[in-house]
Every structure is written in C-alpha cells, then in structure tokens.
Write a structure and sequence with these properties.
10 helices; 45% helix; single chain; mainly alpha; 3-stranded antiparallel sheet; 3 strands; 2 domains; hpI Integrase, Chain A
Length: 268
C-alpha cells in the first residue's frame, strides 16, 4: 500500500490546504515535501493538538539549524502559510511572524585573484576540451574580459557584435544593473585580444548585427550554466578548486579586481 502524504494528526488539514492552493491557481507540488518535513516532525513530537503553538514551531525551527539558510527559510515559510490557512478554522492557531527564527546567512567573501592565479586560469582555459571548435578560445577570452573590465557575467554574455567597437576601444552594455546602459572603455591590449577572437568567431557563427559576440562551439550565445561548467573545470585543473566542501572561487569573482594587465602577458 502506498504511504500517504501525511501521517500526523493534522494530515487532513495539510491535504485540504494543498487543495485550497490548487483551487486558487497555485502549484502545490513544491509545497508537499516541505509540509511532509513538518508532518513528520509532528509525528516525532507525538503532537495531538488541533493547531501548532509557538513553542512547537520554535522547536521545529531549531531542528533545522543544520540546513542551508535558504532551505531552512523555505520550510518555515510554508508552515507559516499553512498556519494562516488553519487560522480560518482555528482562530487561536499561532502564525509565525515574518522572519520567524530566521538565520543569518553566512557571508561568502569574493576571491581576489593574484596575477599568478589569473595566468593559471587562462592557461587552463586554453586547454579546455574543444574538439577543434572555438570553445577554448571563447572561454579564455571571456575569463580575461571579465577580469580586465569588471563586466558582470550577464553583461558579457549579452554583448552583440555591434556592441563591440574595437576601433574606439569601447563596449556598449545595453542592459546593465537596474536596466541602465553604459559604455565601458577597454585597454589597447584587450582590444587586440578581442580582435583576434573576432576573426575566429566569424568563421563559426553568423555575422548579423544582433548576433552574440561570444559564442559556444555551436555558434550560439553563452549562458550561465555552460560558462559555470567550463569555469569549474578550469579551476579544478589549475588547483583552485578542491573536492566536496571546497568549491573554490565563483565565476563572478573575476570582476572584483579591475586590472589593465595585458591579455598577452596573462595568457603566457
């Protein structure tokens, strides 16, 4: 026999709550596992009441202290929604206030690269498996561009061919933070590297004005998931990323040091 979703004394209330959400046009699939955690907690606590009280919810919040902050907050949030619903039938039901038992997120400081580390990153990027495609050249150019200009990843991915003015040594960012556009000057050495990349890029991808400047091996625009995958490979192969629990720097950390060091020097 298939195990029911909920086992505690509030099982029927949980099920009715999910139906109520669906009748309102809301998807409840993601709510089920979160509610089941609370349901199993009630079983473990041998809870037999008609509604949760503050002390019970405080113990539930404390039981998730080992979780990542986002996961912990999601669990408390769905319980808060359920308590709002339950108060319709049980006016004395305690409803956790916003931020109830919220844990402070651990601040992850950006990694500040040394010159030697950037050199190692770009060398490893040139060794990315590419199968004779433009892949390794694209990522070597991307990583160096982020480091030397301070562009955000999405801004680099969003560059069109017409946004790169190598003669004037300018990049046009169409939709930066807060949807603001701006011009970004680049060094002569950066322009030279982009010119070299452009010559290879034109052989594998369309040259329409709105075409992406940085492209995948299939001639398509880069996006975060494939860039992150390539960056993790690069970090592992240059010794900046360890095993589980030691993820190393993130791709967007490249922009925290604005450097005008020559690409030709860095990539040697």
């Amino acid at each position: 026999m298939q195990e029911p979703y909920f086992l505690s004394v509030l099982a029927s209330r949980f099920s009715d709550f999910l139906v109520f959400r669906e009748l309102g046009g809301l998807d409840s699939k993601n709510q089920i596992p979160l509610l089941r955690h609370f349901d199993r907690f009630l079983v473990h606590e041998d809870f037999q009441g008609r509604w949760p009280i503050r002390e019970l919810l405080e113990r539930y919040a404390a039981s998730g202290k080992h979780l990542q902050p986002g996961t912990h907050e999601n669990r408390i949030s769905v319980v808060r929604q359920f308590c709002f619903y339950l108060r319709t039938f049980e006016p004395e039901c305690f409803v956790p206030e916003p931020g109830f038992a919220r844990r402070r997120r651990t601040l992850r400081l950006p990694h500040i690269y040394t010159k030697e580390e950037i050199q190692a990153v770009l060398r490893a990027a040139r060794d990315l498996p590419s199968g004779g495609s433009i892949r390794s050249k694209t990522y070597c150019t991307l990583f160096g561009l982020l480091y030397s200009t301070g562009l955000r990843c999405g801004e680099a991915f969003g560059l069109h061919l017409t946004d790169v003015d190598l003669a004037q040594r300018l990049l046009f960012i169409r939709h930066g933070k807060f949807r603001k556009s701006r011009w970004v000057p680049i060094a002569a050495s950066t322009a030279a590297v982009l010119q070299s990349y452009l010559q290879e890029r034109m052989r594998v991808a369309p040259a329409a004005p709105e075409s992406p400047f940085l492209v995948t091996s299939h001639g398509e625009r880069l996006y975060h998931s494939n860039a992150d995958f390539a960056f993790r490979w690069v970090l592992k192969h240059c010794g900046l990323r360890g095993g589980k629990g030691c993820p190393g720097p993130r791709l967007h950390h490249l922009r925290y040091v604005l450097s005008l060091l020559m690409f030709s020097v860095l990539s040697k």
